[in-house]
UniProtKB/TrEMBL annotation:
One of its GO terms (biological process) is chromosome condensation. The keyword ATP-binding does not apply. Residues 55-74 are annotated as: Disordered. Keywords: DNA condensation, DNA-binding. The lineage of its organism: Bacteria, Candidatus Zambryskiibacteriota. SMART domains: BHL. This is DNA-binding protein HU. Belongs to the bacterial histone-like protein family. Pfam families: Bac_DNA_binding (PF00216). It comes from the Bacteria. CDD domains: HU.
Length: 90
């Protein structure tokens, strides 16, 4: 399932136009992204928690040349599924 499929499901369930459904999906995604960019977390009951985690700086190797390179510390997105989601997928 992709973003278009989710928008179609919203359109089917709630009515309105497909454009409105796509705007709803885009708004939800944009809200999650902007909150994570600001360092916050997003908790959606029954789904899970979106947050960020700081990945430490490390040494890596360029697979083509074998040269050692430095990878800087960075924030990466993280998702912790809710118990209800875990149970539903089992």
């Amino acid at each position: 399932m992709n973003k278009v499929d989710i928008a179609n499901a919203v359109h089917t369930k709630l009515g309105g136009t497909k454009v409105q459904a796509e705007e709803v999906v885009d708004t939800v995604i944009d809200s999650i992204v902007s909150t994570l960019k600001g360092g916050g977390e997003v908790s959606i009951a029954g789904l899970g928690i979106f947050s960020t985690k700081t990945r430490a700086a490390r040494q890596a190797r360029n697979p083509r040349t074998g040269e050692s390179i430095s990878v800087p510390a960075m924030r990466v997105p993280k998702f912790r599924p809710a118990k209800g989601l875990k149970d539903a997928v089992k």
